Amino acid sequence: MTNPQIHIDPTLPVIPEIQYTLAQFEGNKKIKLSFTDSGALISDSEKAGIRISRRFITNFCAGKFGHSENLGPDGFIELEDGSPDYISTAFYMLACLQEYDSNVSHDALGRFPYSKSYQSRFKNAHQNIVQHCFDKLSQTLNVPARTTKSRFFLSHDIDLVYGSFLQDGFYALKRGRIDIILRLMMNVAISKPDWLNIDQIMKLESEYDVRSTFFWIVNKSQTEQLKNADYDFKSAKIQNLVNRVEETGFENGIHKSVSSESFQSEISKFQKKPTINRYHYLKFSLPDGFDQVEQSGLKLDASLGFAESIGFRNSYGLPYNPYNLKKRKQYSFLEVPLHVMDTTLFKYNDSDVQKSKEMIFRFFEANKTDCVLSVLWHNNFFTNYKYKGYRELYKSILVYIKESRFETVLQHELSQYAIK
After folding, report:
1. Looking at the structure, do residues 204 and 235 belong to the same domain, yes or no?
2. pTM over the 0.70 mark
3. Does 239 map to a domain?
């Protein structure tokens, strides 16, 4: 097919934003657009082939980013006649504009709260809305329908390795299980704490022919009442594990600590420079969080997810280059959004394992195409005391991946999603 032809109204004040969104659309549909004076007109005019909402343009230029000001009753930015504006809606969600709303108070950790999001308002966190917008835009431009089977990105944040004796021990004490307490004590005594189980995780995943990424914290200090690692990243024991991860075909990443230390300083503590980050506690806000990743020179970030809910924080299923609102162009790094996290279910949703399983698989089944589904399972959730049942729940995810013949991807395989 010939390249679809586009003509952007040169009088529009949001040309960089339209160009950014169309670039993401090109990557999604694996096409190239031709920009000519005779192409389909993108404008706020009633005569345009692809119309842009005047109200959204006005709000954007005025810095009014709240979803109550921009999204209509169906969760889309609307044109003046009430029909959806697919380009503006896709941009609003890809750029995470709701998180720039100055009227929203962040939570105690400085994070954008799910309770203040449009996903909470419309109950649509499980919906790949940007993909829907791109599909609708492709119909307008007569681009052939194209879907790809979803893939999985599996990861493990290594926050604590010595916490089992206290946390699992307290669980056992409440149940009068002295035998468990004695066993936990013995494991500590022989320097094999139960949460130092990286080899076991890799062995389990290898049985299902999948590989994952392990995120390590390089700082042990405690800041602002928040804990960093309880292990010394430089110790021989941890370094041996870090090396073994790579030797067995798995991958490592940096888990940016909550200390004030710079990315560059923390990265320097790795023997081999990492290419991917995830913020500890998902503790970041925009634009600072993205700015710091950009300045670090890292190629990937995997932090864009809600702590309190599974699903899409940006309503898009694929890795993508986020938008730099200050410079009005895309960031150079690739964001790999986070969709499913064990602590979301255990801590924030207070769900039992069966309900958690049902919730996870409803999300998977709703998004079997056009996604890289990112799953985070902490190492402590592989023990069967305080977190009883979560190892088996993760195993059921591995079974689902294998039986449904989904592929899993590692960091080096994600570069195909980057927009040059």
Report:
1. yes
2. yes
3. yes
Give the tens place of pLDDT for each residue, 227-263. Answer: 899 899 999 999 999 999 999 999 999 999 998 899 9
| Cβ–Cβ < 8 Å for 245, 197 | no
Residue 221 has phi, psi (to 5 degrees) of: -70, 165
Rounded-to-integer distance, Cα 220 and Cα 84, Å: 49
Range of the domain at 119: 5-140
Whether residue 136 sits in one domain with residue 156 = no
Q: Is 315 left (phi over 0), alpha (psi -120 to 50) or beta?
A: left
Exposed / middle / buried, residue 285 (Cβ in 10 Å: 0-12, 13-18, 19+): middle
User: Do 119 and 204 share a domain, yes or no?
Assistant: no
386: in domain: yes
Q: How far is CA 311 from CA 128, 271, 340, 367, in A?
A: 9, 34, 7, 10
DSSP string, 222-239: EETTEE--SS-TTSHHHH
Asked if residue 135 and residue 218 are part of one domain, the reply reads no
pLDDT in tens, 339-392: 999 999 987 776 789 999 999 999 999 999 999 999 999 999 998 767 889 999
Number of domains the chain is built from: 2
> Residue 26 in contact with residue 53, Cβ under 8 Å?
no
Tens digit of pLDDT for each residue in 190-209?
456 667 899 999 999 999 99
CATH number at residue 362: 3.20.20.370
**pLDDT digit string, tens, across residues 115-129:** 999 999 999 999 999
Whether 191 is covered by a domain: the verdict is no
- Nearest CA to 187 out of 208, 174, 202, 172 is that of 172
